[in-house]
Design the sequence.
């Protein structure tokens, strides 16, 4: 009887996600233009990918992206959350403002940064340049495009982590904090020996999610640079999207999607093992 | 409680927090400020105060982005997704929270697993399948995709609300002769309605802001969502940044007002799913 309650959710999920996902895995071994009949070609898509410079660049960019987002926003979030814990007064206000970028559509955030900050014509960069300190638009330089995008995503994202860490920090037992304080612990000692260990499960979970999300990043790259200039900011998800809808190489796109999923799968498996280990202790 | 009593620590803390505050607000301030300026003045300086208030930026933005149509599309898409996610999600969350079926563990794990699946893993066959079925440019079909993507999150969040309801309540209703359906719809649903409201808000926000699916599946001008028409407006149709920022403000303002008014629901809902313990 209660089984019937699950039918709507599972039906929608299976039709929209599960079956197409299974088809994607099958298509990764086919050549298909999206219209005709798929032709089985074995591992050719993967062989082609592994010989493709752009694929390795995209993968490398995803790894750089992961490294940036595993460190900068997590450090910023932890530090700000700890300071909010010290400040107490006004923490609710800070929290709301820091969180604000999360509710703004990515397309809008991207355009504001593009036009009002990075642009050499209408942005702050242009203003600074005209004042005699030339600042190139980071999005148009192959060496900096990826970092230019990352800054936008950082602005959008770090407050979310801050709010999560702050919520976790408030659950660290008062007695522990009090005891450390009586023993004369400094700010850094407090952070290192009491607060961070107290919220370790939350930090671990956020790091795992960061890795998974870093391999999914799409919106900001697609809107700001479309992977350019010269593929310098290409990531796997934009590569897959372009292959499928611009080049109609759906088999290749499917192969890239499988690669992205493998990273997610490996990360999830690692997390489950970690959880199990902690459970055993 | 105060962690450290030194006065310098206090001053330093507030200074750092204030700097972060400025960094966060700066781009938003640029958005608002420049939405009121003529394009020629933005080229001179994006920081300057408007010489004249160009309220007509908003009129042009509204017309050029066809917000009359596209906002309605966005609102319809959000409404349909909210109804679908809340109705199907609360049913599933109830069954999983109360462990009404033996396979509750497998179903929970499966739903969690789909949240980590990249959109690209199912996007391409879905798109070409929908194209074959004539479902491109169909707002309802897109709301079904949103439902599939967002419902695992909604189920996990609603589950915690169902878990907080005492079991005795359910048992008492059953003893009084209520059917299982009545227990769910007449007893449980009203109690978890705050949770459903939170989910509705967040799902509404996500579908209002969504870009990748909307831009892929809604390609005809009269079916665009507000965000997609903003994206196209700012990409090709104009380089008048006053108008573009006005269009941005039109989309963002209702969201920000709602967020500030109901901040706790938004923050707890969006962050709540991820914090353990």
Sequence:
């Amino acid at each position: 009887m209660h089984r019937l309650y699950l039918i709507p959710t599972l039906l929608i999920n299976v039709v929209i996600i599960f079956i197409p996902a299974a088809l994607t895995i099958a298509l990764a071994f086919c050549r298909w233009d999206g219209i005709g009949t798929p032709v089985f070609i074995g591992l050719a898509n993967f062989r082609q990918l592994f010989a493709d410079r752009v694929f390795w660049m995209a993968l490398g960019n995803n790894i750089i992206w992961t490294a940036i987002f595993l460190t900068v926003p997590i450090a910023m979030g932890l530090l700000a959350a700890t300071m909010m814990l010290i400040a107490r007064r006004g923490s609710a206000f800070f929290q709301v403002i820091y969180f604000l970028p999360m509710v703004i559509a990515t397309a809008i955030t991207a355009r504001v940064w593009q036009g009002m900050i990075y642009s050499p014509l209408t942005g702050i960069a242009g203003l600074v340049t005209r004042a005699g300190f030339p600042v190139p638009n980071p999005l148009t330089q192959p060496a900096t495009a990826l970092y230019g995008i990352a800054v936008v995503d950082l602005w959008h994202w770090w407050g979310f982590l801050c709010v999560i860490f702050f919520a976790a920090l408030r659950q660290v037992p008062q007695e522990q904090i009090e005891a450390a304080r009586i023993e004369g612990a400094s700010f850094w000692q407090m952070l290192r020996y009491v607060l961070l260990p107290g919220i370790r499960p939350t930090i671990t979970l956020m790091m795992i999610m960061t890795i998974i999300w870093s391999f999914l990043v799409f919106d900001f790259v697609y809107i700001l640079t479309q992977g350019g200039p010269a593929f310098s900011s290409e990531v796997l998800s934009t590569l897959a999207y372009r292959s499928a809808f611009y080049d109609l190489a759906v088999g290749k796109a499917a192969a890239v999607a499988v690669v992205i999923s493998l990273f997610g799968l490996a990360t999830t498996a690692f997390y489950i093992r970690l959880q199990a280990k902690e459970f055993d202790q | 409680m105060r962690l450290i009593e030194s006065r310098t620590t206090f001053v330093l803390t507030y200074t750092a927090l204030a700097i972060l505050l400025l960094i966060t607000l700066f781009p938003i301030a640029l958005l608002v400020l420049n939405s009121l300026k003529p394009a020629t003045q933005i080229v001179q300086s994006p920081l300057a105060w408007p010489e004249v208030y160009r309220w007509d930026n908003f009129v042009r933005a509204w017309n050029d982005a066809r917000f009359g149509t596209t906002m309605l599309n966005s609102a319809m898409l959000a409404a349909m997704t909210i109804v679908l996610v809340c109705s199907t999600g609360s049913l599933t969350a109830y069954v999983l929270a109360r462990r009404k079926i033996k396979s509750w563990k497998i179903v929970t794990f499966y739903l969690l697993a789909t949240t980590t699946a990249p959109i690209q893993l199912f996007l391409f066959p879905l798109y070409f399948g929908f194209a074959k079925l004539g479902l491109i440019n169909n707002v309802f079909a897109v709301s079904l995709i949103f439902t599939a993507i967002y419902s695992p999150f909604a189920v996990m969040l609603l589950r915690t609300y169902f878990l907080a309801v005492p079991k005795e309540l359910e048992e008492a209703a059953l003893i009084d002769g209520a059917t299982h359906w009545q227990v769910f719809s007449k007893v449980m649903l009203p109690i978890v309605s705050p949770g459903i409201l939170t989910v509705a808000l967040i799902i509404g926000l996500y579908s209002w802001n969504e870009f990748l699916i909307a831009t892929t599946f809604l390609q005809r001008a009269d079916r665009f969502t507000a965000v997609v028409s903003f994206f196209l407006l700012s990409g090709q149709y104009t380089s008048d940044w006053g108008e573009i920022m006005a269009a941005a403000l039109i989309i963002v303002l209702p969201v920000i007002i709602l967020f500030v008014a109901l901040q706790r629901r938004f923050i707890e809902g969006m962050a709540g799913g991820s914090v353990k313990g």
Remarks:
- Residues 66-237 of chain B form a domain with the MetI-like fold fold (CATH 1.10.3720.10).
- Residues 64 and 233 of chain B are 7 Å apart (CA to CA).
- Chain B touches chain A through 94 residues (CB under 8 Å).
- Chain B has a mean pLDDT of 90.
